[in-house]
Amino acid sequence: MKNEQNPSVAPAVYARPNRFEINLDAVAACTRQIRLRLGVDVQFFATLKSNGYGYGVLPVAHTVLRSGADALSLASLEDAIALRQSGIRVPILVYAGVLPSQEVVNAFQEYDLIPTVHNQVVLNEFLRFATKPLEVAVKVDLGSERIGVPFSAAEKFIRNVHSNPMFKVVVVNSHPNVRGGTHSREFLIRQYREMTSLRQSLADLSPQIKWFPMASSKVLRMMGASMRSNAADPGAALFDPLEPAEDSPHPFHALKSRIIEIRTVEEVPFPDEVVFDIRKGMRVGVLPVGYSDNIHRVNAGCVLVAGRRVPILKPASLEYVRIDLSDVPEALVGDEVVIVGQQGSERISPQEVMRVQGAARVVDLALDVGQFIPRVYLSSAGQA
Ligand SMILES: *Cc1c(COP(=O)(O)O)cnc(C)c1O
């Protein structure tokens, strides 16, 4: 069942004994749920922004493409190039972010990536540097304060781009954003109507614009498939099921470390000079994971040792955090510590961590796991 793969540069043999275990089967299950919700004839762009929401763009990309996604979308041009270099051939849409230069435009051409043209300045720069015709996306802003051509100017802008022999518009997309207040549904429906009317008014173009995605995860969650258009580009829902079941595995499988030091406190000459709550006779364990790994944001106030919950002694330091092992006398240096996940019959779930941290979205937890912690992939499908 276990397939371990470490895409980080440092050889795993030299790494501190920390690991972020990712369950790719759970990502595959989330992807299949999205496909079911969309139906078979909707172009499904799996959005893998921010290094695949912290889960690792390459292994996740291969997993979602095996599990129902048709195409990929993301903001990082570097990641897009890495995806092509790993052999992925499906359409890759690159959202707004990188500013066009000669090198950037060359890369879009060489790696056959779809850039986003979201205003006249960006359009002009692509025109200046392009040496051959490019397939592009136009981002339309249907809400407020979002990137894109305003709805009122969109049709004219898109016609202008499409009629230029250097460009072919293949995607017109929008990313509706609502706060989740009382008018969210109403506002989303209005944005969907605008997108639909834009699509109809561009129907005469030849060649036709292929895809009009606007359903992100929030839209799919709130509106079902009613706003799916002929394409959709959800991201967060790849890592947080649309239809969670009690026993379904979560992509965030575990965060683990090991004890590197155990000391019993013999005397405390200046207790007020000790950064954590200390008392004589306390057994203090040390883990080689600190706030440079964001451990202060990725914990539920306790960890699992020998199948039991033991308190974290706040605050973490740069590379270390202490735990109170007073109630686990059998704990030894080298023992495994579970910060998130299951050990024996005890479990600290990602949801519990987010509750303790007062954070809103469970999907953001993986983004917080520091970049120095190796990602380890679990999958029944073998090599990711
Ligand atoms: C992030 C993003 C998405 C996906 O949003 P989720 O809420 O993660 O599903 C879709 N489209 C655009 C343009 C985005 O930037």
From TrEMBL:
Gene Ontology cellular component terms for the protein in this record: cytosol
Modified residues (N6-(pyridoxal phosphate)lysine): 49
A single MF term (Gene Ontology): alanine racemase activity
UniProt EC number: 5.1.1.1
Cofactor(s) needed for function: pyridoxal 5'-phosphate
Residue span(s) of domain Alanine racemase C-terminal: 252-378
SMART domains noted in UniProt: Ala_racemase_C (SM01005)
One Pfam family here: Ala_racemase_N
Top-level division of the source organism's lineage: Bacteria
InterPro entries associated with the record: Ala_racemase, Ala_racemase/Decarboxylase_C, Ala_racemase_C, Ala_racemase_N, PLP-binding_barrel
Enzyme class at the top of the EC tree: isomerase
UniProtKB keywords: Isomerase, Pyridoxal phosphate
BP term (GO), one: alanine metabolic process
Name of the featured protein: Alanine racemase 1
Species this chain originates from: Paraburkholderia rhynchosiae
